[in-house]
Amino acid sequence: MRPSVSQTKAQLKNITSRILSSETSFIELKDTLDEFKRFLTQVTELNLEASVFSENVHLKEGKAIATKWAAMCVEDLIRTQRFISAVKKAIEDALRENPEKPVNLLYAGTGPFATLVLPLTTVFSASELQLHLIEVNELSIRNARELFRKLELNDYVKEWHHADASTIELPETNVDIVLVECLQHALLREPQVAITLNLVNQLPTEVILIPKQIRLHLAVVNSKLQYEFHTSLEPSSHEFYTIAGEVFSIEKSNARNPEELLQSRKLQLDEDTLNFGDHLSVFTEMKLYDDVFLNFNESGLTLPLTIGQVPGNVKQLEVSAKYLMGEDPRLDFTL
Ligand SMILES: C[S@@+](CC[C@H](N)C(=O)[O-])C[C@H]1O[C@@H](n2cnc3c(N)ncnc32)[C@H](O)[C@@H]1O
After folding, report:
1. Least buried of 57, 87, 102, 120, by fewest C-beta within 10 Å?
2. Could you tell me the residue range of the domain that residue 203 belongs to?
3. Which of 211, 236, 270 marks a domain boundary?
4. Cis bond upstream, residue 191 (ω within 30)
5. Pairing of strands 177-180, 103-108
6. Alpha carbons 195 and 177: distance in angstroms, whole number
7. Cα 152 to the chain's mean position, in Å?
């Protein structure tokens, strides 16, 4: 016999409390998010193995990943847990600030499950939380709508937009929180930057942006130490990289000033820094909200991206970096 809607919602509430609990161990978080993914696919009867769900959507400002890959993001454990916690904290703060009205949250790139807000419908009532949901992939938004319909959560949804969030003109700008999670490590390929620019510039100055800040750094990596770090059971006593400097960062203030945001930046790498390792990588870190961070290596979104070898026989290296927008967004380096 199929469970009733209230039984299904009780299961979601139980999963949510485990995701948010500080008592949940890493192994328990893995089990919880496996159960969450099974829950999400079972409720909507989504067969992710069908080939149609593996087709990416190519946009003018980057790639919108296919339903299957967007669904897999749930499994990026620390990412999922930290984003949901950050969004919960931001909603609590916005409610404290203005208890008389619901918090309006705009979520760009919901994927097939609106993963980063769906659990919070078990924490907040519809009179506290109203959602504006944007997704460009038709199959993903169709599935997300079906999920909300089946769980009888439509009273949380102010509007669904099957649209490109990097170009959409928002019909409703009464938004307290804007959540954008359309990115890969090093802000590669996906349109996070273009979406943030488009949305932030249409919204009130006091809007809360999540992630609050994304920073990219250039680092020199020592392959041997990196190998030891990944294979040793003992906690490493020293880092396998040295940070040369920040090469890009995006937050609300510079998103309002794209010219400044997209300026090229120069770094001088000295002999000690160059001698530390053998290759250059981009390291990503994020402040999601308040004291919630995603640090280097904690998630697929913050794994280092190798960009080249450290040139031999040089005592100094000037590197310039510039973030390029367009169909294939990325940090571009000149050594
Ligand atoms: C990395 S997935 C993350 C899915 C979901 N936010 C999660 O956390 O599990 C990014 C999602 O954003 C969508 N997306 C990418 N670019 C978009 C755009 N320009 N407008 C709307 N949605 C977009 C993709 O189709 C995909 O579903």
Report:
1. 57
2. 5-211
3. 211
4. no
5. parallel
6. 14
7. 26
Pocket of ligand 1 (CB under 6 A): 59, 64-65, 70, 73-74, 108-111, 115-116, 134-137, 140, 164-166, 181-182, 190-191, 195
Domain count, the chain: 2
Quote the CA–CA distance of 68 and 12 in Å, as a whole number. 21
The reply to whether 113 and 131 lie within a common domain is: yes
pLDDT tens for residues 25-79?
A: 999 999 999 999 999 999 999 888 889 999 888 999 998 989 999 999 999 999 9
Spans of the chain, pLDDT less than 70: 235-237
Please report the beta strands in the chain, taking only residues with DSSP state E, as ranges in sequence order: 57-59, 62-64, 103-108, 129-135, 157-162, 177-180, 208-210, 213-221, 241-251, 265-269, 279-289, 292-294, 305-309, 317-324, 330-334
Please classify residue 128 by burial: count the beta carbons closer than 10 Å to its beta carbon, then call 0-12 exposed, 13-18 middle and 19+ buried. middle
In the prediction, which pLDDT does 335 show? Answer: 84
Element (DSSP H or E) covering residue 31: helix 26-44
Question: What is the Cα–Cα distance from 304 to 157, expressed in whole angstroms?
Answer: 37
**Of the candidates 185, 207, 196, the residue with the CA atom closest to the CA atom of residue 261:** 196
